Amino acid sequence: MYPPQHLTDAQKAEIVKIATQIGESVHCVGMMNIQFIVADQVYVIEVNPRASRTVPFMSKITHKHLAQLATQMIIGKSLAEIGLEPGLFPEPDSVYVKAPVFSFAKLPGAPTALSPEMKSTGEDLGHGKTLGEALHRAFFDSYHFDSHVTGPIMVTPTDAKNTELMDALASAGYPHTVYELDQAWPDDLAFVLATEDESDLAKQLTTRALSHEVTLFTAQDTAAALATVPSVERA
Q: What distance in Å separates the CA atoms of residue 178 and residue 86, rounded to the nearest whole number?
């Protein structure tokens, strides 16, 4: 999502400092993709001297053709000559959320659990004045899920062990039921949460969710995002 919702100004400054040091050290001109993790401090987990799928995402937000600008720098132009300044681009007043699009319903039997391999077949962009509004639009386009409508959810026994998440979802209007093998399928599910697909129970749950066209979330972080949507935005 952009702009970041939980980073301090000091953390942002540290990210810029590290990115600048890396770029100067490897003599990278044009486009460079860096992945950071911010915990007790800022960590760098990956650096690639190339563009990433985030480039078109940010180009749409900033109204800057980033790939074209990077090309201009590669052929010798300076930041000033292409109308840019060092540092972070001014953050907008609204929020943007990029969400993956999956095609599990069209690929029966394909593993659904989150893993290092890329499984998304596309992406969409949710935009709103608030994080909740942006999340709602991103979820609606990617998962065909209306976050303004609450209701019961079905989860695997593994996911039910995350009691903090289950409590947060219940408070947001999504009380959970733990799925049991071969149980009767309810008609009013808001969504299914299954972050593992190795057990027979999880495989059956994901297959039935897809066959009944019920929204399937395969990452707890995705489900947790629903709990951040204020109740006033669900009205």
A: 51
Q: Would you say residue 115 has pLDDT above 80? A: no
pLDDT tens digit string along 151-205?
A: 999 999 999 999 999 999 999 999 999 999 999 999 899 999 999 878 899 889 9
Q: What is the 3-state secondary structure (H, E, C) of 12-36?
A: HHHHHHHHHHHHHHCCCCCCCEEEE
Task: Report the amino acid identity of residue 135.
Answer: L
pTM of the model: 0.76
- Residues 6 or more apart in contact with residue 94 via CB below 8 angstroms: 127, 128, 129, 134
